[in-house]
Amino acid sequence: MLLRVLALSAALLAGTVAPADASTRTVSVDGAVATPASYTASQLKALGGDLNTLVGAAAPVLPPGKNTALRVTVTVTGSAHRAVTFALAELDPAFGNHPAVLTTDHGIDLVVRGDRDRSRSVRDVREMRVAVSAATAAERALRITTAHRSVTLPPWLLTHLPSRAVTASFGLGTGQQTHTETGPSLALVLRIAGVVPRADTAVVAVGSDGYGAAVTLAEERTGGRPLLLSTVEDGVPLDLPRLVPLGDVKGGRYVSGVTALDVH
């Protein structure tokens, strides 16, 4: 009888411990940040779960320079090691204004409600890892660098690729600007350079002055917002291409005089 009582007690204790473990599971924010943090589901619910806000609270470590926060990317990893990378500026209301949220209805899941499909959703999120690009300008444009190789495409080559014209409107300084931008898609330029463009490929475009900004190809493929390298602006050919993240609220990611694309 004593053995049966002990066995029953052990089973009851096991049943009470398991839910507690689930309720205290945390999501970490780490990588290139000054104040790493961990959040439980209840804390995320109280904070609203906005990915841009959570990363901002961790204080990404930024290099000196203008608008270097636009170089920040965040990789969200869930169960089974599934990972999705975002340019933080895509999520920022001041730039891409395309929010991603950690929901807590059924575990901790990442949802991007403005996307055309759920390919950037992540179940059972465990980590948000922040990276900040240190990519520099190239002496000869257009340099395309990956983890394994570097290729240089002459800017004139871009003018011979299939292109499209878009009307881009964005805030810059104290006013609003509107331009007609014409050029090939960023994904096509990468393909010409021998880079297989995946949906979550992150690219940092760097201008001749060292100014840089990050985008991901999923912004176009899944988010529905074209990404171009413009070679003609308002009918005037450009000496060096301009990154066009169509739909951005402000013009910070419209990198002019692009000499380098850092792909990761």
Structure description:
Residues 1-22 form the signal peptide. Keywords: Signal. This is Oxidoreductase molybdopterin binding domain-containing protein. It comes from Amycolatopsis pretoriensis. The protein has two domains: 25-132, Alpha-Beta Complex (Sulfite Oxidase, Chain A, domain 2), CATH 3.90.420.10; 143-263, Sulfite Oxidase, Chain A, domain 2 (Alpha-Beta Complex), CATH 3.90.420. The protein is built from seven helices and 16 strands. A five-stranded mixed β-sheet has the order 2-1-7-3-4. A five-stranded mixed β-sheet has the order 9-8-16-12-13. It has a four-stranded antiparallel β-sheet with strand order 10-11-14-15. The chain is elongated and about 60 Å long. A hairpin with a 2-residue loop joins β14 and β15 (236-245). Helix content is 21%, strand content 34%.
Q: How large, in whole angstroms, is the Cα Rg?
A: 22 Å
Give the overall shape.
elongated
Q: Which parts are unreliable, with pLDDT below 50 for 5 consecutive residues or more?
A: 1-20
Strand content: 25-35%
CATH architectural category of the largest domain: Alpha-Beta Complex
Mean pLDDT: 91
Give the class-level CATH name of the largest domain: Alpha Beta
- Give the beta-strand count: 16
The separation of the N and C termini measures 64 Å
Signal peptide: 1-22
Protein name: Oxidoreductase molybdopterin binding domain-containing protein
Keywords: Signal
Organism: Amycolatopsis pretoriensis
